Structures
1.
Amino acid sequence: MVPEPAVDTREVYSLLDDEHARRILIETYEETRSASALCEACDASEATVYRRLERLQQQKLVESVQEIDPNEGPRRGVRRTPRSRLDRSDRAGFKIDVEYIDETAADRLTRLYEELSG
């Protein structure tokens, strides 16, 4: 029996065809962004952004995180997963490569430690 893939490739293609989902991927590429910041960047309602975030999270392209800002304290946000990579291919747009990596609990803990200490 062949195991089912963790993601639905048709859904990923559908998301990449969606303007708001692409903007969310671009906005979360370099830094964690709050939902309100994504609403502003996408020029979309909260409901629209949250629907796209849910679909992106289901396909493991973004993840919710909680960070501690030294000036503002704890804050929730969204960032791209280490599995998704966005490359500027030219001035006209972006090339999105999605690589799904099986990550063990130990790998996640190591990554978390490195992010917090780095």
2.
Amino acid sequence: MSKRIALPQLASALVLLCAVALPFALPHAEYALDVLFLIFLYGAMSSAWNIIGGFAGQISFGHAAFLGVGAYTTMILWGEGWSPWATLPIAGGLAALYSVVVGVPAFRLRGPYFSIATIGIGEATRLIALNWSKLTGGASGLTMAEGPSPAVQYLSALALCVVAFGISWWIVRSRFGLALSAIKQDTDAAQTLGVSPTLVKTQALAISAALVGIAGSVYAMHYLFVSPDSVFGFSTAIALVIMPIIGGVGTVWGPLIGAVVYTFIREEFAAKLADADLLAFGLLLIAIVLFEPKGIVGAWQAFIRRRTVASRVAGAHGDG
């Protein structure tokens, strides 16, 4: 049993070691580093969204607001002479604080009403950024001339992805994760067992928002430009929902797998034909909803279960 547990851990450690060594082994592979940067950044944001949307079952379409808060925090402070790295905890903290401010009243709503409310939160935040031009630059946004090297950007996204994955892994094995699962299954029943739904959901949202806010900082350092439409846009919010659904919402590995698929489709289809990526995402989501609502991870688990059952039946016939 210990060997079965050790093998996946050893494989994960080896993959992580190779990922860390990649920019040093291939310093001139800038395109590959850029694609992997996007995978890790999307993986971190997708895992962060999954904390509230997957583990707690609270489908949020407003996480772009937290991404934008983090991105603008870094750009504003960076422009004032701060090191961009020093802005990371501030960006995460402000995003978490903002999530508490908007989350507490939003959690009075349930189901689709909560989801609709988060759309309003995201759009309201975008309009605030658009009209507060003295601070945010308005529609023109904010720009920086030079940022960290591609290798440093890649490693920062990788580190954030590992942290987000680690937090997700811890949550599913903790009492906090049990509380989130209870709320997801039946909020009223969870409350009768002593769980405070509003408090637990607010904590989950704050953790999720902090990670997405830090991702916004990394985004700003990579693109050196932020505007209300680029970080607060509804398409960004939708992307954060699509990735976990593709990979397997409510699972630890699903958001990362969804980020890989999302990045591949976005890079391959969008570059060749306008809006082809949107068509591909639409067809993929339809297939998932119709045939495997638990995403790629769910399909893989179902495949393993079928193989296990088949092998046991074959073994039983052989013994007979």
